[in-house]
Design goal:
Oligomer: single chain
Strand order of the largest sheet: 2-1-6-12-13
CATH architecture of the domain at 65-257: Orthogonal Bundle
Strand content: 15-25%
Radius of gyration: 38 Å
Largest sheet: 5 strands, mixed
Shape: elongated
CATH superfamily of the domain at 65-257: Biosynthetic peptidoglycan transglycosylase-like
Number of helices: 24
Structural class: alpha+beta
Amino acid sequence: MRFIKRQYLLPALTAIFVIAGVTLFWAINLELPDFQSLNERLVTESTKIYDRTGKILLYNVDEGVRRSLVPPDEISKQLKNATVAIEDDQFYEHNGFKLSAILRALFVNLGSGTVTGKQGGSTITQQLIKNTLLTQDRKITRKIKEIFLALKLEKIMTKEEILGWYLNEVPYGGHLYGAEEASQAFFNHSARSLTLAEAAYLAAIPKAPTYYSPYGDHRQDLDARKDLVLKRMLELGFINQAEHDEAKAAKVVFQAFAPSGIKAPHFVMWVLGQLETKYGRESIRTKGFKVITTLDWEIQQLAEGAIDAYGDLNEKNFNAHNSGMVVMDPKTGGVLAMVGSRDYFNQEREGNFNITLAHRQPGSAFKPFVYATAFNKGFTPETMLFDVPTQFDVHCEVDPTRCYTPVNYDDRYRGPMSLREALAQSINIPSVKALYLAGIGDSIETARRMGIQSLGKANDYGLTLVLGGGEVSLLDLTGAYGAFANDGIKTKTQNILVVESSDGKKLEDNQPQEQRVLSENTARLISDILSDNKARTPTFGENSLLYFPGRDVAAKTGTTNNYRDTWIVGYTPNLVAGAWVGNNDNKPMERRVAGLIVAPLWNKFFTAAIKKVPAEKFVQPEPTSSELPPVLRGFWQGGQSYMIDKISGKLATEYTPKDLQEERVVKQVHSILYWLNRTNDQQFPLWEKSVLEWAALNGHLNESETIIPQALDDVHRPEFNPIVSLKPFSSSFRSTDRILIETTAQASRFPLSHADFFFNNNFLGSKREAPFVYSLLVEDIKDLTRDANELKVIVYDSVGNQGTATIPISILD
């Protein structure tokens, strides 16, 4: 064993010395490029972002790069200190790299053959080398080269020169490179004049320039990182406590930003952020990717036009300064248009802020998720609930501060209402009851499955959830409604179709990702209700902005109780669009409902947009089962039903024609909890009290079971059916013949009324007077076959008894 160890020890040591020698020779002879030529470098291949056709360029990431080089002494000392504090707090002590950081990264990445870049620890000197002199690959050999170049750079340049070059090269987002260019763009003054607060902001951005952009959607995160910079400066002794506190409290205003040659800027910046997260900022900047997005430029222009058309009007009439819109294809999940504010380039209105990604309270726009959950549990559009003043908190009498008695938007109460009417008209009190019956937790789970991930736990909201107590983004809400449009199938929201490398290789080829989140029938019930113009007419009017004659369009509005947010989401089977109007700072608007504020804007867009997609009909839901309890099928008066014959007024029998049967109930007015046998429910006494008070006030007296008739229908009997026979001239005809049908009918007890004629069960016509004779041309008959045809006549008497006769018909040619 000892011999074996000695046998391998010498070759191993020899290999180590050889590798070390080669590495040392390579490092000694490694040439350092000329840093004085940095200002002459150009980015040659930048990523280009296109619309869905791949023809309309939305954005060229590095077109028009802005880079201004200034001497180190022209850059604020505060920015230098802030950058060192957050990026490399040992900058003035190390010789170009930190061995501890290198070893930590090495152990994490050992065996992979690459450097993941996720371990951090690169010094400012290393970052400068990486950004200016080396490629952006993540091989270990590049990392080694980076370290040796950093060591050599530290030998020939002072720390101040290195820091100065770094601050001249560091990216600040978009086309901005270097502190001078960023300072001019952000604050309209030079880098030498930066305040401490401004310097902290600039130091905070380079870690992730797109994510932390002051013109993006993560301003709160940028503010938090700025505060972290100030904290580190305080800890390192760069500033004192008073300076820290003053800078932290300072209100910094960023100048308006207008990148050249950009279309659909909110959408593009959203896409760009995702690309940089996945591929890295440097790859997006230098590797020449071609990105084909889901955006439809024509639809985008329509959306922008609608936002622009109503922007000033809503501000003047309703104190609503901002608006946004998202448009999607519910079948693919593709975002066709995104307008995040009235004007991306208007900094005074925070136009760069993308309201479609922000979380706001949705108001009644959340109700369809609750009703869908109720339908999943067996409730139906005909289920009746009482719209009456109702106290929902069981502790109200003991603690008045806990009382919860919601009201409707118009302060009116309508008594018994079906779920169809309550949802279509957006009535609050029945909706709160629907939430209780459906379950808060289950309703949240329904919304989550449909794509709304921002909601918390059931205990976070209580019964206010149905009125918009949670927070959602317009993007998620629009996508969730897309599952209603798509028959209960949620297609994952996507904004990128294809990503190609510079040599044409596909890095991404995204296909729709589908998941069933609702039953077909539940989705169809919601679409049927939200497109039911008759059901919503009492609230919105017969010719409202939600109504599109000749097209199936479902729509739901939402207004928060404090009038800070107004929403509308509408859809066809192949197009869904959501719009929001309000104020970014949460200031309330005028006390008007969404139908007046946001609906006109949405209607203008949707009227034009639906002309660009095929007209599709919603599939009708299944009829409500007659086996369900009466209260679930629309009978609020009682829970015990019986069928009568309309003619005799007696109990219907198996012989009573269906169209002459009528269901009645023993009138006993109670809340739905009574009929569902939930009298032990804690809400039962509260609901029951308000319903009984309403019944007494409106003169509804209870009946007993004695109201049910004892006698059976005695006018509809088999022996009372008319006797019928047919006599055509022949049972075989040619295609050019005329068929003459002569009916012989004899009444059994009641006078004859009329006769209906059918061919292969297709209705031909009626005759109201005897003799019942009918003629037709063979060539006019639909669904004609050569042999298996049937001619049928049904004769009715005055009380609905009927007799039937049929004969086979064959066609000779």
